[in-house]
Structure formats: structure tokens, C-alpha cells
Specification:
Length: 295
Amino acid sequence: MGDTPGAPSPLAEVRPEITSDPRVAAVMEVLSGARLEDVAAEHAVEAMLLRRWVRGFVEAGVSQVTNRPVGDVARERDRFLATFMHGLRSPLAVAQMWVGLLKDSPDDARPEVLDHLQETLDQLNTRASEVELLTAALLGRVTVRPDDVRLGDLTHDLVPPERIGGDGPETPLHVDPALFQRILGDLWAAATAARPLPRAIRLESLRLGPWREIRVVREGSPVDTAVLHAMFEPFDVDNASTRVTVGLYLARTLTVLHGGTVGVEQDDERTAFWVRVPAEPDSDHPRSPTEKSVR
């Protein structure tokens, strides 16, 4: 039987903050029959990314309707275990190496070895913090507290404000300052460390349709596609030579909590790591800090 004439749409029972999300709006347009490529162009997102959103939306809906979430639970468990091991394996191995050297070192060389060991333990602590934050985000336990800030307020550790290109340091953002600063730092670190090393690196901002895009642009030869894949999907590979950790996976997870997305594009001369977040704050909370969490 169909809906009763005059009955409210099922969408009317959905929380407004869900249907007002630009990603959900784009998916709903595609599911309503609009051409995917046209919707992608209208919302200023790549067609491949929108296709992934639609697939994830449908798969999640099928799981809910058929009451078969067991596979999702197993995947979350496996993802957590992979995250934990991937984030800690490399610095732990280095720390063990320095401990071994410390045992065999002459007395006059031990201070230098201890310095290296302390540096490695600091890295291990950083990785543990990354894993803790990523796990909390995957479990829906990270609360986003967006506020009105300027881009220049979040980039002091990366570049001087006067060196930010595009719309510059005055670019307005409605984000969680601490979390978004981490996102930018992870993108910057990835762009800086990826081989071959860049000739130069810069930060740019621009308005792209409904999005505010921040780009970390590195000048130089392109990054190997396998390394780029490992940066964004580190748990799909088991190759220590890629020299990546959970950084960009964490950056993407935190960006999703902001209602945005991250990506990369490159040619023969430059590679741009970018993050996009909604240019306008949530209409339900136009100018005041809000709290969002994903469960």
C-alpha cells in the first residue's frame, strides 16, 4: 500500500541537521533520479566521491532495514586493530633498536643514544595519541565544537599569515579550532614528507561553490600513486616503505565530522592536498558555537 494522501513525507521525521548536510542533500538528489554527474557539478564535488557517498548511504540503509549490522561491527573491530598496530609498529621497532644499541654502546656514546631513544619514545607517544583520537572518532565519541575563526589563527605553526595565498589569512572558517588545526597539520606533514621531497610548499585558500577549500600545495615531481593511496587508506596496504602513518586517515575522519571532505590532485609540476568544509555555518546555529558528534 502507498502512503496515505496528505500524510507527511517520511523525510519530515528526519532531524533537520541531517537533511541539511550538503553531502546528504547531494546523495538524496541522486537517489531521487537526478544525474550523478550533474549533481556533482552543482555541489562542487568529484563524481567519484559522490558515487562513494551514494554507495555508502545505500549500504548503510540496507544494513539498518534488514537488521544485519554484524558485518559492520566486525569491520569496525578489524579497523581498530589495524589502526592500533599500524600506528605503533614502526616507532616501537625503532625504540627497540635504540635499546639494543644502548646495551652495547661504550659509556661516552650513551648520551647520544639516549637522545635518539627519547626522540623515538616521543614519536611513539604521538602515534598513541593519534590512535586514541582516531579510535574515538570511529566510535562516534569525538565532539566537534565549531567556532568562527580566521585561517591565519590556525596556521602559525605552518606558515606566517602573510604567506597564505588565495583568499589569505582572513579566510573565515566555522570549525573546531583544535581539530581543524590538527587536520591542516596532518596535510602539511604529508605534503612535506612525501618522496620525492618538494622544491617548495605553500598554503592557499579559496571559495569553491558551497565549500571553503584550504590547499597545501607542493611544487615538484608527483608523488607515487601507491604512496598517495597508502596515505588515505593505510590499512589497505602492509608496506613499511611507504613511510606513512594514520595521519591522513585521521585527517579525513575529523573532516567528515565537520561535514567536509579531503582529497589530493596532482600533475607533473605540483601536488595539492586539500580539505573542504562548508563555507557557511549550520543554519540552525548561524553565529554561535555548536556541538556535533557522530555516532
